[in-house]
Task: structure prediction
Amino acid sequence: MSEPFLINLKEAFLNAPGFWESSLSEKSGNWCKRVEGIDKTQTDGYSIIGDFVSQWNLQTFQQPGLYLSCEKKGSKKGAQKRLYALFVLQPNGEVQILKEYRSASKDWAVELWPDIEAHLAIQSDSVQQRRSQLLSEIETLEFELSQRRAELAALEIEMDRD
Result:
């Protein structure tokens, strides 16, 4: 897993290629969260598992990974549409927009599930691949180390004879 780094997540998000909005309002109720999974027993925002990002509009330490932002549009509470944006914060600080979705429905999160699942599967596969690679390298190194120890033992026996 990559280490957290100092970044203004909102600024990086707004400057990402493919994001069509140039600014997000500071309305109460707007939020951003780091996405870690899905709970399919829910169909609303509670189905998207992860911690909310505090101070996403300030320079703070953020973890690379999958994020979801929500901006409320409109002033009437019952008629508000929301802009949901699913994006990835790369370890190099770049942001990649995966999906933007406008909705006023309560089951909006279901629309994002396929994209979230696809991203999490890719991440899981790459972690699994790296784990396998490391295990293979360790096995090779341990074999080479045992060969060197055997060679050293043979040399010590030879030296004791002399």
Observations:
- The chain has one domain: 5-134.
- The longest helix spans residues 109-161.
- The two ends are 53 Å apart (CA to CA).
- The mean pLDDT is 84.
